[in-house]
Amino acid sequence: MIVLEAKDDYRYGLLVGRAWGAAYRRIHSRTRPLSREALRERRAALEESYPQALERLEGLARAAGLEVDRLLSAGPGNPLPLPGCTNFAAVPPATRDDQVYVSWNMDLPGFFRLAMGRFPLFVRRIGSRKPYLCTGSPLLFGLGIMNSDGLCAALNSVGMTDGGPGLTAFELNNLQMETCSTTEEAIALVEKGPRGVFPGIYAAILLNSNMLLADCRGEAAVVEYSHGHVAVARAGERGGVLASANHHQFLDRRLSGCPDPGLQPEIAGSWARLARMWKLLELHRGRLDPEAASAITSDHGADYSTLADFGIKRPWFGERVDDSTICAHPWNTWNHLRRGEVEEALTERLVSLTLYRYLMQPLRCTVWFGRGYPCRGQYRPIFVGDLLEMPWAERAREEAGEAVPGPSLREKGGRGIFFSRPVSDTATRRAARGLLAGAVLGLDRLLQKMA
C-alpha cells in the first residue's frame, strides 16, 4: 500500500508523474485523444467545479513529458471500468452497538488484479484537504472509500442514456472525499453538478455510477443520477438500511434511460442481487455487525421475485440467472459453452467475479478487507485512524479492544504494508501494466461490437 502525500495539487501531480510517467506514456500510445469539442467541455467542467484536478494534471504532464490535453483524454479521473457490485449501508437502529457500516463487494474482471495487487488500498494526502483512503491503483484510478471525517462511499456501475459533459464519477467521488464531512454535503455536491455521464446501456454501463454514502452521524443515502436528473433515498426513511446494485431503483428510469431486464436481459442479474440484498438486510435488521456483513456478502442465494414482471421466471433450484448472486461467481460459463454461447460465456466470465470486499466502520476508524471470493475467505480488520488523522482515533482504538486484533498499520519509510514513497518501477510491473492496458482496450472494443 502507498501513502501519497504532497504540499499542493501541482506537487501531487509531479509525484505521480515521476513514479508512473512511463506507464502513462505507454497507455497514451494506445489510446485516442478526445475530440476538440469534448476536450473543451471537459476542461470547462474542471475549471468550474474541480480546478485542483487540473493543477494535478499539469504537474503530472510536466513530470511525465505529456501534454495536458492528452491527460484530459486518458488520465486520472477519466472513465475506466467501474465495478459491477452489490453494496449496502446500515446505520442505527439497524446495527448492533449503534455502529455505522458501508459494505462494498467489488466485482471486476480478474486481470484488474495485475494493477491493483493483493492489497489495493492507498492513502491520499494533499495540502490542507481531508486525507482519505482509496481503493484502486494510483496509476489508473483511486476511488475514495473513507476520509478523515468518517465520510464513507461505495460505487456501482450503471448504464443510462441521459448523458452529457461534467465531472466523471471518479472526480465527483474524489471531490466528495476532499471537501465533504457529511452525507448531506456529499449529496449537495452531486446535485450541484455538473454530472458527467457517458450515454449507453452496454459498454457505457462501466463508466457511470450510483453512489452509496454514510457518515459518522448515522446518516446514509443512495444517490442515483444521470446528467439531468438526481434521486436520493435515505436510510432514515427505510429503517436504517439501504442497498444498491447496477441499475436505478429510485431514479425514474424513463428520465435516466437506465434499462430494465425487458430491454436488456443482461441486467437481470443486478435485479436479482438487489432483491436478495434487501431480503437479507431485513433478516438481519437490528443485528447488523461485521459478522452479519460477512454472511451477507458471502451469500449465494437466488431471488428472482422482481423479474417476473419482465417474463423471467426460474425456480430457485434451477440454472442461475447470470451474475445474480451477491458473492459473484461465473456460475454458467460452462453451460453457455456447451450450448455454443461463446459471447455469453465470455461476458459472464469477465463480470461475475468478486475481486475484493470492504466493510467501512468509521466510528471505529476501521476498514474490514477481504480478497477474492467472499465465500472462501474472511475479513481482515485494518485500523486507519492514525493514517487518516481521524480526531477520535485514540478513543476508537480503546473501544475496539480485541475487535481489531494485531498491531495498527503505520506509515513506514521502507518496505512494509504502507509506503511513504512509491515502490520502484520494476520490469515485471511495467509488463503487467502493459498487459492490463491492452486487455482494457480489447474489452472496450468487444463491448462496442456487442452493442
Task: Describe the model.
Helices cover 35% and strands 18% of the residues. By secondary structure, it is an alpha+beta fold. Strands 11-2-3-12-13-14 form a 6-stranded antiparallel beta sheet, with helices on one face. The protein has a 4-stranded mixed beta sheet with strand order 1-4-5-6. The protein has a 4-stranded antiparallel beta sheet with strand order 7-8-9-10, covered by helices on one side. It starts with a strand and ends with a helix. Mean pLDDT is 86; it is low at 405-425.
Task: Produce a short descriptive summary.
This protein is an alpha+beta fold. It is 35% helix and 18% strand.
Count of distinct structural domains: 1
The helix fraction, in percent, is 25-40%
- Please, what is the CATH homologous superfamily? Penicillin V Acylase, Chain A
SSE order, one letter for each helix or strand: EHHHHEEHEEEEHHEEEEHHHHHEEEHH
User: Shape from CA axes?
Assistant: globular
Radius of gyration: 21 Å
Report the top-level CATH class: Alpha Beta
CATH architecture: 4-Layer Sandwich
Uncertain segments of ≥5 residues (pLDDT<50)? 405-425
Average residue-wise pLDDT: 86
The biggest sheet, with number of strands, parallel, antiparallel or mixed sense and barrel status, is: 6 strands, antiparallel
Distance between the termini: 37 Å
Task: Please work out how many helical segments DSSP would assign.
Answer: 14
Sheet/helix structural class: alpha+beta
Strand order of the largest sheet: 11-2-3-12-13-14
- According to DSSP, the number of beta strands is 14
